[in-house]
What we know:
This protein is an alpha+beta fold. Helix content is 31%, strand content 26%.
Amino acid sequence: MYRNQHGFTLIEIIAVLVLMSIVGAGILVRAMNTDHIDLMAQAAKIRNHIRYAQAMALKRSDTIWGIKCDNTASYWFFKGTTPDDSASQLPLPGEKSASILFADINVTMNGFELYFDNYGRPYTAYTDETSNTPVSADNSLTITISSESDSVTLSVTPETGLIQ
C-alpha cells in the first residue's frame, strides 16, 4: 500500500506553533518599555494626593490643607499655613511617612506650594484670610512630573482646584 509522505502531521504543526509562541512571548517581554506607563501611574498618584488635600479642606473646614514640593528631593501633605513645620506635616493615605521621596517613586517635580481653603479653592500662597494668592489665569499653577525619558504636566484649575 502506498502512503503519501509529503505533508506534516497535526502533532508537528502544534509543536511548531507552541515553540513559536514561546519565542514570540520572550521577544515581546524584552521589547516592551514600561517607563511611560510608570510615569503615568505616578502622575495619577500625585494627582490623587492633591485631590485628597482638597477633600480634607472641604471636609474639615477648621484649617487650610495643602501639598508642597521642595523641587529637590520630596513632596509632602500638610495642614495649616506653615508647610515647612514638621508638626503640620501628615502622611498621605497609603504612605508610611509624611514626606514622599522622589528617589522612591523614580520621578522629579518642579517646586510648588498648593493650599486649599474650606471651600476647596486653590492658592499658591496663604498666610491668613486676607493675605493669600489664589490660583488664577494670571497666577496659574502647573506641575511638571518628569522621569528619565518623559514628562507629564498637571494644571490646577482656578476656583475649582480641578487637576487636569
